[in-house]
UniProtKB/TrEMBL annotation:
It comes from Mytilus coruscus (Sea mussel). InterPro entries: Endo/exonu/phosph_ase_sf. This is Endonuclease/exonuclease/phosphatase domain-containing protein.
């Protein structure tokens, strides 16, 4: 999921990441001494990036996560947490909704490997979040992540919902032939993910 909010691109990821993160932090609290030494306190853009986690606190979202999984973090978990820290996205599980303070298991009632992950600016739009009871009709092992967003339409889009059936519209589609590029880009450059992997039909 990609969201455009206030002319800034916000991120939303959901799915099975095969990542066991336990309760390790998905954020970094910057060291004030380093900021002073490097004279970073004059650059608002850098400060906004470094202190992005405070947007969670402003919206009463706890920084600390809990987990019903007692597994040790795995390599994929560490890689996912590093991605979160680099581009300021945060795991929703155990932070909001019915799962707040719970950290329900999502895989075989053993571990948490399925996540909803959002930019801090998207948390206020999230109205509901829960881990559904396992349903074998829908999955062999995973419990569904249930969530709802609430957002008003931008002024220039109101009254244009009928245009969604327009056959001349351009849509974005996943190109599975370029999946290796996605992996390479996600490991090196988060901006390149948007430029190189998501292509128009």
């Amino acid at each position: 999921m990609l969201f455009l909010k206030k002319e800034k691109l916000e991120y939303g990821l959901i799915g099975d990441f095969n990542s066991k993160t336990s309760v390790l932090p998905d954020y970094i609290i910057p060291d004030d001494n380093i900021i002073d030494i490097l004279n970073l306190d004059e650059d608002n853009e850098i400060l906004e990036y470094l202190f992005d986690y405070q947007n969670l606190l402003r919206n009463n979202i706890p920084l600390h996560r809990v987990s019903g999984c007692f597994c040790k973090p795995n390599n994929y978990g560490h890689r996912l947490l590093n991605l979160c820290k680099k581009i300021n996205i945060y795991i929703v599980n155990s932070r909001v909704g019915d799962d707040k303070g719970v950290g329900a298991r999502t895989f075989k009632d053993i571990s948490v490997v399925d996540y909803l992950i959002l930019s801090s600016q998207l948390f206020p739009l999230l109205q509901k979040f829960a881990i559904a009871e396992f349903e074998p009709l829908f999955s062999d092992c995973h419990s569904a992540l249930c969530f709802e967003f609430q957002a008003s339409l931008l002024p220039h889009t109101r009254g244009k919902l009928g245009d969604l059936n327009d056959t001349n519209q351009t849509f974005v589609k996943w190109n599975s032939n370029r999946s290796s590029e996605f992996v390479n880009c996600s490991q090196t450059d988060s901006e390149a993910i948007l430029a190189d992997v998501l292509i128009s039909i």
